[in-house]
Design brief:
- The complex is a heterodimer of chains A (114) and B (112).
- Chain A is 0% helix and 54% strand.
- Chain A is built from no helices and 12 strands.
- Chain A has strands at 3-5, 10-14, 19-21, 24-26, 31-38, 44-50, 56-58, 64-68, 73-78, 87-95, 102-104, 108-113.
- Chain B is mainly β.
- In chain B, strands 2, 4, 5, 6, 9, 10 and 11 form a 7-stranded mixed beta sheet that branches. A 4-stranded antiparallel beta sheet of chain B has the order 1-3-8-7, with no helix packed on it.
- The chains are: A mainly beta (114), B mainly beta (112).
Chain lengths: 114, 112
């Protein structure tokens, strides 16, 4: 069985400061990893994903995440946050092969302070 | 391109009343479809998934049910709502073999 842990339920950060949202996973097989963002009263939007190849993946709005197999982590980072980044972020894992059930973390609320 | 719709956007229902939430996907065929519930302060709970017409798998036993009468239509139902059914219901579809899921806008359900 696979699992995802997001240790930080809330992360306050000042505008233009860097941020890291932590995600650790557990799986006995190869995985695909995802970060989703959810703005208030909206559905989840795919932010970025790791499927294979380069372990560093980037989104169009400046976020990046690095797949670290030895540490079973997929932390999300941004060097300088904006007010508009205030949202809840979910890490998710899917295993290759078979049904590919997706398991989501409990989410991290990013609060950007002006 | 593919789009996913959910309605209604918001619903307030009394305890014991029936429920029907609808989800439709456009621009793809034979998608895998999912219903999730997101309760306040909690993550996403997978309720049902479907790999084809009439094929429904339940992840969590409860008073909800799901149906897939058409290839791109997924319906979440209940005969009698409970207070604990309140939450944000999300429909999603999966593309390809990597588990990448795409979500609809959600339905906020408040049971009073």
């Amino acid at each position: 069985a696979q699992s995802v842990t997001q240790l930080d339920s809330q992360v306050p950060v000042f505008e233009e400061a860097p941020v890291e949202l932590r995600c650790n996973y557990s799986s006995s097989v190869s995985v695909y990893l995802f970060w989703y963002v959810q703005y208030p009263n909206q559905g989840l939007q795919l932010l970025l994903k790791y499927l294979s190849g380069s372990t560093l993946v980037e989104s169009i709005n400046g976020f990046e995440a690095e797949f670290n197999k030895s540490q079973t982590s997929f932390h999300l980072r941004k060097p300088s946050v904006h007010i508009s980044d205030t949202a809840e972020y979910f890490c998710a894992v899917s295993t290759s092969g078979g049904y590919q059930k997706v398991t989501f973390g409990t989410g991290t609320k990013l609060q950007v302070i002006p | 391109s593919q789009t996913i719709h959910q309605w209604p956007a918001t619903l307030v229902q009394p305890v014991g009343s029936p429920l029907s939430l609808e989800c439709t996907v456009e621009g793809t065929s034979n998608p895998n479809l999912y219903w999730y519930r997101q309760a306040a302060g909690r993550g996403l709970q997978l309720l049902f998934y479907s790999v084809g017409i009439g094929q429904i798998s339940s992840e969590v036993p409860q008073n909800l049910s799901a149906s897939r009468p058409q290839d791109r239509q997924f319906i979440l139902s209940s005969k009698k709502l409970l207070l604990s059914d309140s939450g944000f219901y999300l429909c999603a579809w999966r593309m390809g073999q990597t588990g990448t899921q795409y979500f609809g806008p959600g339905t906020r359900l408040l049971v009073l």
